Amino acid sequence: MKRGFINIFATTGLSLILLSIIATFYSAEFLCIETVFQVLLLNVVVHLILLLMYKIEIKYLAVEVVLEIILTVAVSLLFGAAFHWYTSTPLFVLVLMSMAVYVISIILNILHMKQEANEINELIRIIKKE
User: Fold this and answer.
1) Which of 26, 41, 55, 79 is surrounded by the most beta carbons within 10 Å?
2) Are 47 and 11 in contact (CB under 8 A)?
């Protein structure tokens, strides 16, 4: 549960940083407060959908990754339509941003798992020395 909240807030922060970078390229001067909460809601919904998807056993990793990306982009596009994001952000930018957040999140998860594995290996070494 705690890890889920951390992941939601991490992807929300990552989404907002990418959104700010993109907005800077479009010469935007500010980011609306309501957008922050909309992005948070988007990330909550995406994480809930991915959590439900993890309950389904998918045989092939590639199919699972493609399905996750499709679901993430689809939810982002639905939220874009619901919150009128397309008036300020082009469709392809939203798609690319969704995919970038997904890929960066996967990379961060891999780095975190590697760190945990190193910590476990170190604990095993310590136990073997005793």
Assistant:
1) 79
2) yes
Q: Which of 106, 100, 7, 101 is nearest to 47 (CA)?
A: 7
> pLDDT tens digits, residue range 4-63?
899 999 999 999 999 999 888 888 888 889 999 999 999 999 999 999 988 888 889 899
- CA distance linking residue 17 with residue 104, whole number of Å: 12
3-state SS of 54-96? HCCCCCCHHHHHHHHHHHHHHHHHHHHHHCCHHHCCCHHHHHH
**Alpha carbon of 118 to those of 7, 26, 62, 101, 115: distances in Å?**
21, 42, 27, 26, 5
Instruction: Return d(Cα 130, Cα 126) in angstroms, integer.
Output: 7
